[in-house]
Amino acid sequence: MILPITAYGHPVLRKKTEEIELNDPGVQQLIDNLFETMYYSEGVGLAAPQVNLALRLFVMDATPMGDTVEEFKDFKRAFINPYIIEESGETWSFNEGCLSIPGIREDVKRPDWIKIEYYDENWVLHEEEYTGIPARIIQHEYDHLDGILFPDRLSPLRKRLLKSKLAAISAGKVDVNYRMIFPKK
After folding, report:
1. Structural domain of residue 63, as residue ranges?
2. Total domain count for the chain?
3. Which of 88, 72, 48, 51 has its CA nearest to residue 137?
4. Does residue 65 carry a pLDDT above 90?
5. What integer is the mean pLDDT of 149-158?
6. Is 36 labeled as catalytic in the residue annotation?
7. pLDDT, tens digit (0-9, with 9 covering 90-100), for 100-131
8. What CATH number is attached to the domain comprising 90?
């Protein structure tokens, strides 16, 4: 089922998420819905808060980029109760966007390397290391689980320059091809 995307300004995007109970029977349906919503909205990652659920879960699929980057072939994952346990390496800028903040893209600096622990959709525990773009996507989606949005990582000047655009999104003044949930006035 395609779910509406939660827009910037909605309080759920600022909440710390709750862990999902081990072997929760509804988690597979939620994962399927997240992937379907992400594909419909043309994203590469989607976190549960972006569909109005304060749960510690996100999905990503970078396989469309596999034609140009080998490491992305078959790179489709669900991350249940993830925790980044280490970040290091040189920080580098990359132009990021977000389905909850449509129409805005900005260069965001993040570390190049991460180590993350998470359960997959079969409740198998993983501890994995990622670099480059996969690390970047994971860090972006992971931030959603802690109530952090990519504009929070920008300089104070960039944030001030984006203030009116962010206010417009929060007010529902956006043109997207997917349904959105806006903050109550």
Report:
1. 5-181
2. 1
3. 72
4. no
5. 96
6. no
7. 999 999 999 999 999 999 999 999 999 999 99
8. 3.90.45.10
Asked whether the whole model's pTM tops 0.90, one would answer yes
Given the residues 19, 86, 117, 141, select the one marked as catalytic.
141
Residue listed under structure tokens 């529902």: 172
Confidence band for 75, pLDDT divided at 50, 70 and 90: confident
